[in-house]
Amino acid sequence: MNKRHVLNLQELNRKDIPLVGGKAAVLGELLASGFPVPPGFVVTTLAYDLFVSRNHLDEVIERALKERPVDGEAIRKAFLSAPIPEEVAQAIRAAYQTMGSGSVAVRSTATAEDMPHAAFAGQHETFLNVVGVDAVVEAVRRCWVSLWDDRAIAYREKMGIDHRMAKMAVIVQRMVPAEASGVMFTANPITGARDEVVIGVNVGLGEAVVSGLVTPDHYVLRKTSFGWRIVERRLGRREVVVKPKADGGVEEIKTSNVTQPVVSDDILKKLADLGVKIQSYFGRPQDIEWALANGEIFILQARPITTLPEPMPRVGKLNSMLIRTLAEIIPERPYPLDMVWIETIFSNAVGKIARYFGIKVPALEQIFVEEDGIAVKVRPDFSIRPSWGVLLAPFRLIWLALRYDSAKWESDPLLSEIQARVDSLKKRDPEGSTWEELLDTVHEALSIPSLAGEIRKRYLPRALISAGIISLSLRTLRRRHLLSTLLFTCINTKVTEANAELEKLAEMVRKNPELMELFRKYEPKQLISVLEKTPAGQEFLSEFEAFLEKYGHREARGSALISHGTWKEEPEVVLGIVASLATSEVKHSSCARFREALDQVLTHPLLRLRPFRSTFLSVLEEARQLHRLREDGRFYAMMPIPILRRALLTMGKRLVEAGVLEVPQDIFYLKLSEIEQIKKWPLSEDTAEELRALVSRRKEKWASLKDKPFIDPRLLYVQDTSEDAQRALLVGIPGSPGVAEGYARIIRDSSEFHKLRPGDVLVAPYTTPAWTPLFRLAVAVVVDTGGPLSHAAIVAREYGIPAVMGAGVATKVLKDGQYIRVDGNRGLVFSVETEREEVSK
């Protein structure tokens, strides 16, 4: 055996990578260490170098590399026509005969393969069931040629690897007559869990799995104190089996009727044990190809997993629910100045009630990971614990329920006080205010949500107790399925009130041909200036201004962040909604469904008795205030947002004039505590420089986080291993029952509201009350975040359309215009094979 051109596989280790490539070096080391690797030999890079130099192929390569794109075809043609040096061919023949000839696998092993940052998986050729010495020599040539395949060239350029440094060695191994084979990851490549092994299995040779020809059987095994436990199993479709042919080569055979697993649980656990041993040997998680023959496992390849995410912390059901709720309220990374508003809302909407009943709510710094004032991500393991005060909770609950009638919450003087404070603050002139007066306005505006929180604290207990009574009553009456309809539909809230006003504006447009033409012709941003030029347009704008005066504090982009504008600041958002409503049929709310559900309950013999009937209706009315307290409580709490933004942006404008900020909006990179420290005006140069440096540093940090999620999307996934779920494009939480089909319309924020057309499926990262008008147009809703009690789910049920919540990555997986089926009963979204072409809308 020529030691320069051919080496025995068992002699190799990772020090030999420049000579034999990463794949061969790893297999050689595993074989020498006692792991079950088929024996073989390696045609080294020296043989490749000799082939290139003797045939002057280096000149061909240089010319091809100067082309853009690289002319890989010219290199491949030259390689195929050049003769292999006789000494190399003789060395290959001798090594093959020493192995006893027979069937072998010939695999590429490039020097740039299986590096920690670049695996080159599938970039180079493999030839299976090669029989005969001449066929082996030719297969070696084909492996050399594959170094210059277009996909390999593109991959090297993507990974920043110099083409001139890439060389090719070739492994020739005894062929394993596999009855089953596949791949194994010694850590979960999706979740990052290091205590899980993921295995894919198919009948026959592993090429079908590696190349993606089949949907293999899928297993996830988790390491426990008592050994391996199979936590997920799914039979694949095994569309194709790759088998060796008698005269060499392989063939693909189509299969069907998959009913039994390919391998036993015992084999799976042995595979997992072997995989973990290989991982331990190399010191990092591995991507392993394996084969099973006559009950014996063989390792065909091992390489490091190059794209393994950080392990996802396991969170309990409570935290999982809270994180989904948080993702709906704060769907994107907040600016430093947003934090004071989040603290205000969180403390009063949740904290005030929780603390009163003895629940310790974590501070924001326990929920968010901050770096230099920037919220980097959400901590998934924050905790909510009871205090000793929880012992008094039942008494406090009953006391509040007896004192405050939830059906009368709208007559509470606190509502008048909220409106009075807002009206008073609106009259202030920010431009004519001093810095101290602007700060006073900010502080007073921040105090208003506490009043809304107090209203919730007073009236929610009775509404919750009433809802519990209704739930128990319906269970007793065997009408439990009607609970959601009775509690959450046909309820007049500030949201439905605003929707009705929007519909009136749309009706104005609908009835006036001139307005209709303008709304069809112009984009929302152009409409105001166009409408001002016509009498009909001026009349519309008068009504439109009245609408904005009453409802304009709604968040234009739908999130509860003060860094975002409101409807009044971005009226084009509302005009886009009006335009969509004007061109669609009115979709009325579900009062008919509520009355039908109520009739079903009241026809029960027990409720025909007047005392029971009267009591049930009274308690139901109190329970139905739950939805109103939630929706309207938010409406009143958000009323100071325009006042806050106006004061803060005025302060930002003054900091621009002082040379601290580039634009007024940059003030959101500062925290309120830092703004409060500005005592003197004009600023000293030292203070100005300190603030400039702080804002500059945070802007740079913010930009570096642009592509990093604020909430780990894996925390939003729903686990469902059913057969239907495996066929589905997305798995979420049932939010509203029913099944509907339509074109997916991805709406990421308010600037895209006008894209939605009647009959579309609304696909959104989240929704808030500001999104509610879109539900009149949608045939179904799919949302990345939330659960059955989220805003989107409740509104979808109100309009009687299916909804899937908590789909995690719907806005990334689904394509705009894709035809889908939304199953709100099971929380699944399917692709629908249709010959219909996407209609330009």
Automatic annotation (TrEMBL):
Protein name per the record: Probable phosphoenolpyruvate synthase
Entry keyword DNA-binding: no
Keyword Nucleotide-binding assigned: yes
Top-rank lineage group of the source organism: Archaea
Gene Ontology terms, MF aspect: ATP binding; kinase activity
InterPro entries per record: ATP_grasp_subdomain_1 (IPR013815), PEP-util_enz_mobile_dom (IPR008279), PEP_Utilizing_Enz (IPR051549), Phosphohistidine_dom_sf (IPR036637), PPDK_AMP/ATP-bd (IPR002192)
Pfam families referenced in this protein's UniProt entry, alphabetically: PEP-utilizers, PPDK_N
Ranges of residues in domain PEP-utilising enzyme mobile: 757-827
Residue span, Pyruvate phosphate dikinase AMP/ATP-binding domain: 18-312
